[in-house]
Structure formats: structure tokens, C-alpha cells
């Protein structure tokens, strides 16, 4: 069974920075990609950034490009999101997402983290 444990976030002033982490654990885990999504109050969940586990290729939503940086530590099966120049509109619950399979089952699977709150004050 896969577990995603998120950390980081909290209350940040506009223009400030914070870093989110997401650690994946599970037996014989094989990761395809990891990513971040966010959901603001009253809005749908939206894509923020994703990273390919093998190549390190990254993709960003236009709204965060140039301000957020996604990275990974393959040895720790951990992903990070460095968030700089934060704006009040970045306030949301940030969810970690994982696409993976296991050594015993090659079918692709998807998992979500529990979410972590980021609040940017103006």
C-alpha cells in the first residue's frame, strides 16, 4: 500500500517563500511521475506542477511558472515544491499526486496525499 506524507506550508506573507515536501512510501514502489495540485475555497482542484521521476522533466501551470520550482530526490522517493514570490491567490490546499506501479503489478495507479494548507496574507 502506498502512502504519501506531505509537510510544509502554513501562513506566509505575500512576497514570501515556503517549501512543500511529499514523501512516498510503499513496497517495491516504481514511480512514473509526481505532481502538485491545489484547491482554493469554492474552486475546483487545479494542476500546479509535475515532474517525471526518471528524466526529471518538469511542467508548470502558467500561473506559477517562474515562481515555483518542483524537484525530486529519487533516493528518498520525495518531491518538493519551492514556492517563491507568493501571492494571496496562491492560497489553497496543496495536494501531492503520484502515478506509479509496483514490482508485483505493472498496472499504472494513482494516489493522492492528504493535502497541506498554504495561506498567503496580503
Description:
- The chain has about 120 residues and is mostly beta strands.
- It is built from no helices and eleven strands.
- The strands form two sheets. Strands 2, 4, 5, 6, 9, 10 and 11 form a seven-stranded mixed beta sheet that branches. Strands 1-3-8-7 form a four-stranded antiparallel beta sheet, with no helix packed on it.
- A hairpin with a 5-residue loop joins strand 5 and strand 6.
- The model has no long low-confidence stretch (mean pLDDT about 95).
Largest sheet: 7 strands, mixed
- Decide which structural class fits the backbone: mainly beta
Kindly state the mean pLDDT as a whole number? 95
Shape: elongated
Round the Cα radius of gyration to an integer and report it.
Answer: 14 Å
What keywords describe this structure?
122 residues; mainly beta; 7-stranded mixed beta sheet; 4-stranded antiparallel beta sheet; 11 strands; elongated
Topology:
Elements: E1 3-8, E2 10-13, E3 18-25, E4 29-39, E5 46-52, E6 58-60, E7 68-73, E8 78-83, E9 92-102, E10 109-112, E11 116-121
Parallel strand pairs: 2-11
Antiparallel strand pairs: 1-3, 3-8, 4-5, 4-9, 5-6, 7-8, 9-10, 9-11
Question: Summary?
Answer:
The chain has strands at residues 3-8, 10-13, 18-25, 29-39, 46-52, 58-60, 68-73, 78-83, 92-102, 109-112, 116-121.
Amino acid at each position: 500500500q502506498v502512502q504519501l506524507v506531505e509537510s510544509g506550508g502554513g501562513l506566509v506573507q505575500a512576497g514570501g517563500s515556503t517549501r512543500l515536501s511529499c514523501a512516498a512510501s510503499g513496497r517495491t514502489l516504481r514511480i512514473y511521475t509526481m505532481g502538485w495540485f491545489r484547491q482554493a475555497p469554492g474552486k475546483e482542484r487545479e494542476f500546479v506542477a509535475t515532474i517525471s521521476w526518471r528524466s526529471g522533466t518538469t511542467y508548470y501551470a502558467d500561473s506559477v511558472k517562474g515562481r515555483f520550482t518542483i524537484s525530486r530526490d529519487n533516493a528518498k522517493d520525495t518531491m518538493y515544491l519551492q514556492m517563491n514570490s507568493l501571492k494571496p491567490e496562491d492560497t489553497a490546499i496543496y495536494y501531492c499526486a503520484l502515478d506509479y506501479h509496483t514490482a508485483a503489478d505493472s498496472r499504472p495507479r494513482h494516489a493522492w496525499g492528504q493535502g497541506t494548507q498554504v495561506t498567503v496574507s496580503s
